[in-house]
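queue> holo job accepted (FE2/S2 (inorganic) cluster)
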Amino acid sequence: MPVYQLEINDQTFNVEADRDTPLMWVLRDQLNLVGTKYGCGIGQCGSCTVHIDGIATKSCLLQVSQLQGMKITTIEGLSKEGLHPVQEAWKEIDVPQCGYCQTGQIMTATSFLKNNPKPTDSEIRNAMQTNICRCAAYNSIEKAVKVAAKKLS
Amino acid sequence: MKTKQVNKSRRDFLRTSVLASGGMIIGFNLFNACKPDVKPPIDLSLLDYNDFNAFIKISDDGKVTIFSPNPEIGQGVKTSMPMLIAEELDVAWKDVNVVQGVLDTKNYTRQVAGGSQSIRQGWEPLRQTGATARQMLVNAAAAKWNIDPSECTTKEGIIKNSNGDKLGYGEVVKEAALLEVPENVKLKDPEDFKIIGQDISNVDIDKIITGKPLFGLDYKVDGMLYASVLRPPAFGQKLGSFDDTNTRAVNGVQDVIKFGEKIAVLATNTWSAMKGKKALKAEWIEDSKPENTKFHDEKLLGLLDGSSFETLRKDGDVKNAFSEADFVLERTYESPFLPHNCLEPMNFFANVTADKIDLVGPIQTPAGTAYGVAQMLGRNMDEVNLQMTRMGGGFGRRLYGDFAMEAAEVSHLAKKPVQVIFSREDDMEDGIYRPAIKYRIAASVKDGKMTGYHLKEAAINSNMYGLIPNFFPAGAIDNYQVDVANYKSNITTGAWRAPYTNFLASAEQSFFDELAEAMQVDRIQLHLDLLQNVKGTTDDRIQYSPERLEGVIKLAVEKSNWGKTKDGIYQGFAVYYCHNSHVAEVVDLEMQNGFPIIKKVTCAVDCGIVVNPLGARNQAQGGVLDGIGHMMYGELTFADGMPQSNNFDTYQLIRINQTPQVDVHFVESDMEPTGLGEPTLPPVGGAIANAIYAATKKRIYKQPFINNLELEALKL
Ligand code: FES
Ligand code: FES
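queue> job finished
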C-alpha cells in the first residue's frame, strides 16, 4: 500500500492506505482523531467537517491521496490553548443534545466566522445548513454562532 | 476499591462504607431505586457490594463524585439525575463531579432509557438517596459535638451548629459511613431548592466540544477488526449463494463470515470493510412476498373499511350517537414508515472469548441485550459484561439490540474482537421503522354539542398500547370508542420517538380544528369546554389532567398572541398530553411563493418542576423542530420490499435554514417532574396543518405534508 505524508494539526504523519481511502477514516481508524465523525459518507451531513488550509471541508469526500502539502486541522487541533471562542460559545449556550454532530458544527462555524466575522442572521443560517443535527438543536446552534461572533470581534 | 465495613439500611436501599483511601462511599442501585415496584431477580441482601451500580463518593477533602450509570441518548439525564442527589445532599454543584459508572447488567432487568420516564421515576428515590447521605453526615457531626442532630444545619457541604462551629462533609465522612443508615429522611421543601431549577450545563460538554472519544464508534481495542455486514437488500429475502473472491482481494480485508442470512466482512479498518462488502456478489432468494407502499396503503385502508377491530376503549354507544346526530364528520389521516436516522449509525463492539463476553456500545436496553447475547451463544449471564457508551441519538432505535447481537455472533465466529458498523445506507435500509399507520376519526354533533367520537387505527404490525386510548379526548365525550387493527408485514417496525402519538396527535388535532369549523365554534373554546367534562373524573385510566391541559392552552394562547398577529402571519393551534406531560403549541407561518415558511412556534409545557431549565428548553425545542422536520419531509417508501431512500441525499432531514425559533414557556409548578424527551413532538404536526389551513384553506391529511403542497412551491 502507498504511504502518504499528511500535515495534521501542525504535525506530520506518514499514513499507509489505499489511495481512495477517505481522510475521515484515516483520521478515525489510523490516527485516533475520533472527534471527526462519520454520519453519511457522501458529503450530506457535515459531521466529518475538518479544515483544509483553513476552509471547512467534508473529510468523507477527500481521498487521502489528494492531500499532499495541505494543512489539515481537525477538532483536536482547533485550539492549542484550551477552548477556541467558538467552543466557549458552544459551552455557554450548552448546545449539544446527543452531541454527535457538534464537532462538525463547530468546525463549520469557526471557518465561517473567520471569513465573515460580522454575519447577518440569514448568513448564519445559510452557512450552517451544510450540517445536520438530528437532535435538531438548531435554535441553540444559531444562538451560539452569534455569541461566538461577538467573542471573536 | 477496598472497603472496610459495610453498612446497609433495612431494605437495602442504600449501603455505605469507609474507603481505605479515605472518604465514604454510598452505594445504591439506580434502576432499582427508581423502580421500587420492580422486584430484583435475586435477594439484594445476598449480593456483594459491587451489585450497586450507582455511587456517591465523598472524599476526605469534601469533594463529591456521583457515578451515574444512566443511558444518555441526548435527553440530559446524566446531568439532571445527579442534580437531584446533589440538591438533597446539600452540596454546591461546582463541587460535584459526575462520572459515567460501569453498568451492572447481570442482576437487573430494568435498565432502560426510553418513554421519557427516567426523571419521573427518579424524582423521589434519588432525592431520598442524597438526603439520607446528608443526614448521616449530620448525625456524625452531631455526635462529635455531642448535640442532637436537629441542632445542625447544612449549606454547600458544611455542617453548622448553633454555637457557630463548622465541620466540612470531608471531616466527618469516616464516622458517618459507620453509622446506621437512617430511614424516611425528610426531603427539602421545593422552595428551598438551590440546584433544582437552575440552568446547569451538560456534564459532558467539554468532552463533546473537543471531540474526545465518547460514542460507540469511538471505541476500539488492540487487534479489533471492523465488520461491515451485508444483509438481504429487500424484506422477504434470504441468502442464496455468494462469491467473496473480489472481497478477499481488497487490501485490509481479513475474513468473510456467513452468519444466518448475512455476510460479515472483517477488515483492519472501516473503509476496507465497507469496500469489501460492496465487492461481495450474492444471490438472494424470495422467502416471503416482497411488499411495497401501494400494497400497504391498500391493506391499511382495507382494514379501516373492514370490521376486524379490537376495541381498546368503549364508552356509551357511538353508533347510536352517530345515528341521532345532526351531522357526522369523518376524516382519514395517513402516515408513512419512518427511519430513525440517529446521526451515529448503529454499531457495537463484541469480544467473545472462552471465559467471557465483552460488549461495548450505544444501547438503550443494556440488560435485555446482554441477556439476548447470552441466550444466543448459550452462555451464562454472569460471563457477559456490557458497557454503555454515549449515544449519538436514540429516538427508539437503540431499544433494539440487533446490532449488538450481530457483533457478538461475528466475534464468536471470528474469535476476534469485532466492531460491527452500519454504514448510513445499512442504517436506513436495515431499520426497525416507525410503522405506517392510518387513522379514521369520526365525530357526531347534535344541537351544537359533540355527542360521539370514534377513533380507528390501522397499523403495520402492531397497534397503540398502554394508556394511549385513554388520552384526551377520552373521558370528555359520553360516547367514545377506540378500535384498532393491524396487518403483519415482513418489514421490521418498532418504537420511534413518542410511539403512536407522534402521528396520532397530529391527526386528532387537525380533526378538532376541522370539527370546530364545522360546528362554527372557536377551536380553543371547544377544547376548554370538553375539558370541563373531565374535571373530577373517577376513571383512573384517565391520567391527563384537565386543569393542566387548560393551563398550557391558556399559556400558549397568551404567549403566542393568538389571533392578534399581523397580516400575512397565519396561526395553527394544537394541544396534547402524552408521557405524563401536557403541551400546547401555536405555529406562526407565512406563505412565500405558495410555500409555508414556519416563522415561530410557541410551546407551552407543563412537565411539573423543571429540574434543569437549560436542558429542558433544549429538549423541548429539539422535540418541536424534529416534529416539524418529520411532519414536513419524513417518508420512507418501499418498492419490491426495498426501502427507496438510503442516505441523506434521498431522505430529507430538517436543516437549520428551515427551522423557526421555538419559544418555550414552562408552567410554574410544584408537581413532580415528568418527561420531556418526547412530549413536545406530537402536537406540532397538528399545529402546522392547522396553520397551513388558515393560510390556504387546504386541509392536509397525509404525512409528509410537503407532498400535499403545490410542486411549484417547492422551488425555494
Ligand atoms: S460523513 Fe461526511 S458529510 Fe456526512
Ligand atoms: S446533538 Fe445530536 S445530532 Fe446534533
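queue> Chain B touches chain A through 64 residues (CB under 8 Å).
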